[in-house]
Amino acid sequence: MPETLNLDDFMEDARGRLVPKSIVPEIDRERDALVRETVDAARELQQKMTKFKMRAMGDVHAFVELSAEKYKARLGGNKGNITMVSFDGRLKVQISIAEHITFDERLKAAKTLIDECLTSWTDNGRDEIKMIVMDAFDVDKDGCLNVRQILGLRRFEIEDETWQRAMEAISDSIQVMGSKSYLRVYERTAADGRWEPVPLDLAAL
């Protein structure tokens, strides 16, 4: 009967092969141990940060509910963006809701109508708008459209009937695919009174 392997005596390499620890250089074993220890600590910290975020957001929403009850107001659905500032005005907690927006096929109709406008406009005074419109429909390196720039086209007060139909098509094409809540904390600096974020991103520390 073949002897059972003791996996503690082996290390798995990048190709999935079991290599006896006895032939793995000591520096490689020490590096492996350091990497695993650091990643384990990072995972533990990630779990703590997730619990902190959920607790903090829960506390803020609970306070908003309590505040509303004092005015006999009932809150329902998405509570939206919330900002709370400490009594001394030096600390701030902010919850913001960011929606993930995309466009359906009606955006192509909007682009066609806009192209008609660009072709028909000969007034030099609209050259700047032409450039903004063309930039709005440029895609990034991942092939994605810039949602903010496209939605920003609707701010132009242009009476052209074709343009108006194009803006209507943009509005109708908007699809909200979901939303994400962000928790941010700030501290006001004593020097110039600006709000500085308290970094919770390891790369920002």
Task: Give the percentage of residues in beta strands.
Answer: 15-25%
In oligomeric terms, what are we looking at? single chain
Question: What is the helix content?
Answer: 40-55%
Structural class: alpha+beta
Strand adjacency order, main sheet: 3-4-5-6
SSE topology string? EEHEEHHHHEE
Gyration radius (Cα, Å) is: 28 Å
Shape designation? extended
Report mean pLDDT, rounded to a whole number.
86
State the major sheet. 4 strands, antiparallel
Find the count of extended strands (DSSP E, 2+ residues): 6
The total count of helices amounts to 5
Distance between the termini: 57 Å
Topology readout:
Blueprint: E1 10-12, E2 18-20, H1 26-69, E3 82-85, E4 91-103, H2 106-120, H3 127-136, H4 147-152, H5 161-173, E5 174-188, E6 195-197
Antiparallel strand pairs: 1-2, 3-4, 4-5, 5-6
Helix pairs in contact: 2-5
